[in-house]
Amino acid sequence: MSVLEVSHISKSFGSKHVLSDINLSFDDNKIYGLLGRNGAGKSTLLSIITDRIAADSGEVKIDSEDVDDNDSRLGLMYLMSEANLYADGWKLTQIIKDSESLYGGFNHELADRLIKEFGLDINQKFGKLSTGYNSIFKLILALCLPVKYVLLDEPVLGLDANHRELFYSELIQSYSDNPRTFIISTHLIEEVANIISDVIVLDQGRVILNQPVEDVLAKTHSVVGPEKDVEQYTKGLNVIGHNMMGTIRANYVYGDLDDRILPDTVQLSNFDLQKLFIFLTNQYEGSAKNEDQ
Amino acid sequence: MKTNKVTKFLFRRQIIGLAEMYLFLFAAFLVLPFLFSAISGSLNDYSLTNQMQGSWVTAAFGVYMFVISTLSYENFKFLIQNGISRQTFFNAQVIVNGFLILIGNTFNLVYQYAVLMPLGHAKDTNIFMSSYAGYFHNPIVAFVFNFIFSGLLLIVGALSGMVIGNFLTLFSKFVQRIILIATPVVGYITAMYTASRVILDKNFQMTWVANFAKFILGYRPTGPYDPFPMIGTMLVMAVILLVITRYLFSKKQLKRE
């Protein structure tokens, strides 16, 4: 069993603290969703994991071996990101050949199928690709290279709805045919909510949530009803947000409910990952401000 | 370690670049003058022998090695994308530069001995031949030391390029521009200041600089220069530059563009 461990990673750019003491563990054959608002530190974390940039402190290990300057560990990962690390003048076919040579393999059968399905002209030069096809080409590489960890940073950037749908379906198919660990960093939470098995939420450079999606959703409760009854029922619970619709109030609770009796006037249901993300990241901002005061 | 794979990748890219450069130079220095002569009706003035006697053929390789040695960021981006460590990149780049210098230096010397010397009836075809070759009485020994001396000169040039290029990649493009503009300006002012002090101030003679330079160059009041101090200096410089380059490679990072 292979494990990717991130221990005590901190990173600053100038006076700005981007990551603060991040500790994470990525297990074999799971699909992780790395969520966070703009500037939360997602891309920086992925760049540190793949040794593209150095952390100020901390370490990244795969199977207890440091990835820093280590070919055998770095070769187990592929990070697809917005950054274009291929030269504009290089032909796509040559990039595939060189990547295959350096990684020691490439799934040509899958690549040929994806190239056809996405309608990618493989004889083009990299610099001539549109934003969407730029992403598609890098996604094809990510799915076809023989790595244990596929890291996708905003994978559907510039893709239209049809291509996004096709990508998610191919991702699931690829995972099913060849189980490996995916770490998907994205803003489009609704689109990945049904794909990911575990969710990690980064906010202001800290991990504020790191659990299996199933467990997380089981802890989400929306309590809807007359304001007074809702307030009474949720008293003492971890209310992370609320809505008012006239005299009707919805309180959003994250955590286990105790055996208190639910009033007839109040309805209880779960809410989705996107709502949880919004409430958690907003709440954390409030907490951080309070801590500072 | 994936040094062999990375070496092949870098060698293929750089040998293609070298071939393209020579093609361009042959077109620029041989074909174009011929075409211009043909078009202007002065074909009688065109001399292939004269065109081939220029020092551009041998100088081009040194310039190419220096330039490609400064340009490592594009390869770094591709290699780090493909899970290659900085240590492996460094090892492979040093091996590739070694191979290229072996090829280029051999080509240069063959060109000097087989083309330049017979065509120009001249012996001063490079620094070694003009200043140091006479130190050796046996022409074969002189040829061997010509090869070693020229090779070391190329190695120091290429390593200097690697140090400059890798140092610059530590900075943003904005800071790089400032460094590239400021360095010649500061260098010029310093040189002018030093020169003026030497001329105007009799107490500021810096004779030790001249003496040190004479020692390094192997200057002798009579006869040809002694090549060994220069060879020794180049060897020491190569080792120092190699250590600096290795350190700078270890500091390479993707820039936020």
TrEMBL record, chain A:
It comes from the Bacteria. SUPFAM superfamilies: P-loop containing nucleoside triphosphate hydrolases (SSF52540). This is ABC transporter ATP-binding protein. The keyword ATP-binding applies. InterPro entries: AAA+_ATPase (IPR003593), ABC_transporter-like_ATP-bd (IPR003439), P-loop_NTPase (IPR027417). It comes from Lentilactobacillus parakefiri. The keyword Nucleotide-binding applies. Keywords: ATP-binding, Nucleotide-binding. PROSITE patterns: ABC_TRANSPORTER_2. GO terms for molecular function: ATP binding; ATP hydrolysis activity. Pfam families: ABC_tran.
From TrEMBL, chain B:
The keyword Signal does not apply. Keywords: Membrane, Transmembrane, Transmembrane helix. The chain crosses the membrane at residues 21-43, 55-73, 94-120, 140-171, 178-200, 228-249. This is ABC transporter permease. It comes from Lentilactobacillus parakefiri. The lineage of its organism: Bacteria, Bacillati, Bacillota, Bacilli, Lactobacillales.
